[in-house]
Hints:
The chain has 7 helices and 4 strands, in the order βααααααβαββ.
Amino acid sequence: VSIKFYPSKFIAKVAPAKKIEKVVRANLTMKQTAFKFLEAFDDILDVQAVTRVALKTLKGYRARVKADPELEAGDLVDDPAQLVQRVQNEITFQIHDEIKDRYAGEFGVWLPSSAEEPRPEHQLNYGKTYQIGVGIDGVEPGDEYGCQCGVEILVDGSSLDL
Ligand SMILES: [Zn+2]
């Protein structure tokens, strides 16, 4: 049994560009927005985990807006492509974080990135098995913001003969 997390497929399902733009235009609060994106998460996460991811996404998104001096909320709404990209990156980042919390010690297979310019050092790790929370040379999918690498979580990984 394994669980595959491909950021691009997951995002296409849960937070496609049209949905993000629609939610933004509807003037929902940030909290409502975060929860709306995460409705479909129960495939891989339970209700509590979804709540944690939603809140972390919201918090992380605000922090990144705040940390970027050239960025203002108004600009983001005026530039839907950038807004969409940032929200999607944030959701992906938080899901990886949740996976690391939940499956630490289990094994995972590093899945290829769907980024236009994948990181060469990550490409070397495609298909390799690693321990979640330990990574390969201290790095695992999702550690780096926007990397878009996936992970196949080997739920019965403890029986693997490495
Ligand atoms: Zn990567």
